[in-house]
Specification:
Keywords: ATP-binding, Cell cycle, Cell division, Coiled coil, Cytoplasm, Cytoskeleton, Isopeptide bond, Microtubule, Mitosis, Motor protein, Nucleotide-binding, Nucleus, Phosphoprotein, Ubl conjugation. This is Kinesin-like protein. Belongs to the TRAFAC class myosin-kinesin ATPase superfamily. Kinesin family. The chain contains 18 helices and 28 strands. The longest helix has 173 residues. The chain binds adenosine-5'-diphosphate and magnesium ion.
């Protein structure tokens, strides 16, 4: 809202803006135009009414990767290709027009690549009017009946607005009418076909809540910013076809309220949509002509159409505009069609054109930078300087971004693949712009007059007209009755017929009566004025009451807004915390899972450990058992071996004794032979049996041996003694020797091999054994023993005596020894000894029931 300061007061700091902490983000809308006839590839998809998705065209995807994946951009609203101009207007521009009418400023610009539909959106075409003609139409539909007469409002040259008095305004109007060049009033002029049918009447819309007690006037300006120069498109310059004058650029100034304006810019007061649009069209034409003449491209310039709405309250009578500059409110709506946002490379410009392109780029770049800095300041609480002054466009609109009204942007996009890269940049900028917040404009304060003035004034005027028409007729209704009563309260007029030229009575009486009436009237007027003043003061009091209430409400609203903001912040915080907690929950989940896995591992490892321990235990006990078994076995074996050793020692001892005995025997025999040579034919004498007595302990058999069996002396020819029975054992291998005396044992059982049956029947045993003696002669030995019954039921023989029968041959000494046993080495054999000795040393044991002879049970060990 551009508030007017008193014209005559010196420059003063701008009036403090009503405190307002509420802010709104820049509203960014996206409009997608349909593909052109020649464009095949589409790189944009509308995926919801707030989001679009860009995907790189095939050609680009191949070149780079990563950067060209699908990207989504969200806006306040996205308008697809089927969106009508009206729908767009309803959403985007209508609220701005409503604001304009309620004294608030607005800025609306279209942004996008050349050919993306900026001009189509802003201006449109016949039958498809854009935001601009529709906005104008809505303005006039809303304020139409409340418009002030032309020239009542008059712009000063300092961006302010004055209220002219009736007479000056009338004079100006007359002057205008006399100028033929100025287009005629809307009712009489013909509509240019170029902009006819921009809006169909059924699409007309109207703002609500228009203050009827105000008077309105609309002023439009149209400027172009080209190459960072500002040109006034509505400036009336005498056209010289021979030497056209180049247009003069304008400069930007700051008014008393620090608002920026184009100094000396034409502001045309317009009274209807058609008139306004006609002015716009005039500017367009001028622009086109200038572009053609100067060889410029319109896509490189920014065009700014400014609609200013001046409004001031009607005076107390509701008749005229209040003649108070302080009460004039001016709001403005800027409609900007920005230059195409393409990069220099794409414009294929060279030389001065390149510079131009650079400047366009520069001004859009500055816009970008400003928005970025603003955003950063707002988001991070920094206070960086926003470089508005770097370009004319941003400089002109600086107040909007600093909080002087609503800002909206329509981002136009052409979905064709060629534009992809530039569209990407446009989208990024547009999305970022949404993060900038602009202070919400506050409602204007109330002027202080009672509402409904215009209505009352209207009603009064109507009544007066009616009354004039019905002059003299009967009066009805409340108002005429009061008037009648009033009239009747006056003293009646005396007869006023003058009787003659010298009538001194009638006239003075009439004069007196009239004076009386005059006095009464004066009194009544005074009374009326008093009452009116009283009423006025009451009303004013009430108005101020209302005003303070309004202010209070405003304040409360502000507070409410703050609270809202706080709530919003807290909500955001809650959201953030919720997200965080979700994240943490997720992490906990993962950790839990990890813990479970570890626990599982631990459990399985423990189980394994336990099983291994058990196995170890088992093996240990097994080992111990084995050890004890081994111990047992060892002791067993030790015992066995000890016994065995003892047995063997005994056997050995026996054997050695036997050997000793045999040798002794031989020695004795030799002795006998030696002595026999001295006593002729004397039979060799066997030494005393007592001497040959076998040692009592001869049996090595484990079987119990009867201790010390009596050894009876045996004779060479033994005879059967009484009841003795003999087993006569003669091996079949024996040779019959006639030369030797054979023992004749009566009643003997002759056997070739000893057997148990025979042994069991006898108590004596004799073995006839032949062997070759050392001199080569066969000697026969009679080995005798006694048969004992063993405890096991078998038979055991204990040898007691050996008799040797030998055939003596004197030449035998030279005879070659005949070996009975195979002895290939011819070594002296001791087998003869051994055999006898062995047999003698061995006790033959027959087990009861055994079929085998004692030979088989022989316990002797070979040498
Ligand atoms: P810009 O001003 O961005 O350079 P224009 O508004 O001149 O683009 O649009 C270029 C062409 O595309 C015009 O012929 C226009 O009629 C057409 N066009 C743009 N937007 C639309 C739309 N939404 N629907 C139909 N045609 C469109
Ligand atoms: Mg355009």
């Amino acid at each position: 809202m551009i508030r007017q300061a008193k014209g005559k007061t010196p420059r003063r700091p701008p009036p403090k803006k009503p405190s307002n902490n509420q802010k709104d983000p820049v509203g960014v809308y996206c409009r997608v135009r349909p593909l052109g006839a020649d464009d095949e590839e589409c790189c944009i998809e509308v995926i919801s009414n707030t989001t679009i998705q860009l995907h790189a065209p095939d050609g680009l995807k191949a070149n780079r990767n990563g950067e060209y994946k699908e990207t989504q951009y969200s806006f306040k609203k996205v308008f697809g290709i089927k969106t009508s101009q009206r729908e767009l207007f309803e959403d985007v521009a209508k609220p701005l027009v409503e604001d304009l009418i309620h004294c608030k400023n607005g800025l609306l610009f279209t942004y996008g690549v050349t050919g993306s539909g900026k001009t189509h959106t802003m201006t449109g075409s016949p039958g498809q009017g854009g935001l601009l003609p529709r906005s104008l139409d809505m303005i006039f539909n809303s304020i139409g009946p409340y418009q002030a007469k032309r020239y009542v409002f008059k712009p000063d040259d300092k961006n302010g607005m004055e209220v002219q008095n009736q007479v000056d305004a009338l004079l100006d109007r007359q002057k205008r009418d006399s100028q033929t060049t100025v287009p005629k009033t809307p009712t009489t002029r013909r509509i240019d076909p170029e902009f006819a049918d921009m809006i169909s009447p059924e699409e007309a819309c109207k703002a609500d809540g228009v203050d009827e007690d105000s008077s309105y006037s609309v002023f439009v300006s149209y400027i172009e910013i080209y190459n960072n120069y500002i040109y006034d498109l509505l400036e009336e310059t005498p056209f010289d076809p021979i030497k056209p004058k180049p247009p003069q650029s304008k400069i930007l100034r700051e008014d008393q309220n620090h608002n920026m304006y184009v100094a000396g810019c034409t502001e045309v007061e317009v009274k209807s949509t058609e008139e306004a649009f006609e002015v716009f069209w005039r500017g367009q034409k001028k622009r086109r002509i200038a572009n053609t003449q100067l060889n410029r491209e319109s896509s490189r310039s920014h065009s700014v159409f400014i609609v200013k709405l001046a409004q001031a309250p009607l005076d107390a009578d509701g008749d005229n505009v209040l003649q108070d500059k302080n009460q004039v409110n001016v709001s403005q709506l800027c409609l900007v069609d920005l230059a195409g946002s393409e990069r220099t490379s794409r414009t294929r410009a060279e030389g001065s054109r390149l510079r131009e392109a650079g400047n366009i780029n520069q001004s859009l770049m500055t816009l970008r930078t400003c928005i970025e800095v603003l955003r950063e300041n707002q988001m991070c609480g920094t206070n960086k300087m926003v470089p508005y002054r770097d370009s004319k466009v941003t400089h002109l609109f600086k107040n909007y971004f600093d909080g002087e009204g609503k800002v909206r942007m329509v981002v136009c996009v052409n979905p064709k693949a060629d534009d992809y890269e530039e569209t990407l940049l446009v989208m990024r900028f547009a999305e970022m712009t949404q993060e900038v917040e602009v202070a919400r404009p506050v409602d204007r304060p109330i002027c202080g007059f009672a509402a409904g003035r215009r209505q009352r004034n209207q009603a009064f005027k109507e009544e007066l007209t009616r009354r004039l028409e019905e002059r003299g007729g009967p009066v009805d209704g409340e108002f005429p009755t009061v008037l009648n009563q009033l009239l009747q309260s006056f003293p009646p007029l005396p007869p006023c017929e003058i009787s003659g030229p010298n009538d001194d009575v009638t006239l003075p009486r009439l004069i007196e009566a009239l004076e009386k009436r005059h006095k009464i009237r004066q009194m009544m007027i005074e009374e009326y004025n008093k009452t009116a003043n009283m009423l006025k003061s009451v009303l004013q009091e009430q108005d101020s009451n209302i005003l303070s209430k309004e202010n209070f409400i405003q304040e409360q609203r502000g507070k409410l807004g703050e609270k809202d903001k706080m709530i919003q912040n807290q909500k955001n915080e809650i959201d953030r915390l919720e997200k965080k907690s979700k994240m943490l929950e997720y992490k906990i989940d993962i950790l839990q899972k990890t813990t479970n896995i570890y626990e599982e591992d631990k459990r399985s490892l423990q189980q394994e450990l336990e099983s291994r321990e058990q196995r170890l235990q088992r093996e240990l006990s097994e080992k111990r058992r084995m050890e004890s078994r081994m111990q047992g076995m060892v002791t067993d074996a030790k015992l066995k071996w000890e016994k065995e050793c003892e047995r063997r020692v005994n056997a050995k001892q026996l054997e050695m004794q036997n050997k000793l005995w045999v040798k002794d025997e031989k020695l004795k025999q030799l002795k006998a032979i030696v002595t026999e040579g001295k006593t002729e034919n004397r039979q060799p004498q066997r030494p005393s049996r007592e001497k040959d007595k076998v040692p009592p302990k001869r049996s090595a058999s484990p079987s119990p041996v009867p201790t010390g069996p009596p050894v009876r002396p045996l004779h060479r020819r033994s005879h059967s003694a009484g009841g003795e029975r003999w087993v006569d054992h003669k091996p079949t291998s024996n040779v019959d020797l006639d030369t030797v005396l054979q023992p004749n044992i009566p009643n003997a059982i002759k056997v070739n091999a000893p057997n148990e049956k025979a042994l069991s029947k006898c108590d004596k045993y004799v073995l006839t054994h032949q062997e070759v003696a050392s001199d080569g002669e066969i000697q026969t030995k009679l080995i005798k023993g006694e048969v004992f019954k063993t405890r096991g039921g078998g038979q055991s023989v204990q040898f007691t005596d050996i008799e040797t029968l030998k055939q003596e041959n004197p030449v035998a000494a030279s005879r070659k020894r005949r070996s009975s046993e195979t002895d290939p080495d011819g070594e002296p054999m001791e087998g003869d000894w051994t055999d006898v000795e062995t047999r003698c040393s061995v006790a033959v044991e027959m087990r009861a029931g055994s079929n085998l002879g004692p030979g088989y049970q022989h316990h002797g060990y070979p040498k």
